[in-house]
Description:
By secondary structure, the chain is of the alpha/beta class. It has 11 helices and 16 strands. The strands form 3 sheets. It has a 7-stranded mixed β-sheet, sandwiched between helices.
Amino acid sequence: MxxxxxxxxxxxxxxxxxxxxxxxESIVNxxxxxxxxxxxxxxxxxxxxxxxxxxxxxxxxxxxxxxNGKGIIDALRLAYSKSKGDLITRMDSDDIMxxxxxxxxxxxxxxxxxxxxxxxxxxxxxxxxxxEGFKKxxxxxxxxxxxxxxxxxxxxxxxxPSPCWMVYRDDLDxxxxxxxxxxxEDYDLAFRFYLKGLKPVPCDEILHHWRDYSTxxxxxxxxxxxxxFLDIKADYFLELEYDRNKSLVxxxxxxxGKTMAKKLIxxxxxxxxxxxxxxxxxxxxxxxxMLSFTTLxxxxxxxxIITVANLxxxxxxxxxxxxxxxxxxxxxxxxx
Length: 336
């Protein structure tokens, strides 16, 4: 095993010239020096390519290519094909690394060994006040990361902080790296890490700063709309978790509950659909009767998908299921 393996940083770039120099400075000033950056210009219409070229002329560790496809996944595939490192991480061209990010991820990952994922805490920053949703997501994700419990929340949100992770190349290959063409690509990769049993290494240091702004890709592109996240959750649940020997129950009749119910109906999967809204109980949606949540006590050997977003209601549901002896990620899964 190499004592000082090379780190390959793969980074798609598209129209981020306003932030790119700050991002690049955070990379070239890392305390860890044994790295290479493979940046892929994804048909930028601004000065991104010229900014990257300036850094190439000053630092031989930086390599820049133009995307021969289109979009983030094609860019990641190309970057990975050009990389040589034994350790792989990703970077977003509008974000900032802390100076010790690569060193901490590398040190933690080497101590843990193969079969693990190095992760770190993240922090949002923005010129405008952050919304409560961003603050809650940051706090929730960091709490999981501190204890390496990231996969306990995999069906709730993307629970591997992207792009604040590092893995061994052969582990990434075992997860099919960037081959699958499915968005959101970071969430799909997180599920594939989970599928292959990779274990997050706990970390209590902020290593990555997420920049939030109104035109950020994750805010504006259809690939990152809510329905795409739900599709991934549903598909992986049915592949990895669904127990046909149990009675499937869907909680909630909001948009996510309806989307989930419709997907199950299309696949011919039988389920009970419950809610606590008296205006909906007893009515039929998609020819499926809405039942009261009290129905659960009569359902033997159940497995539940919970799409209820209200935090107070979530706690009540969780407490109720725990009293029944049901286990998270076994008999019940929070999808929001």
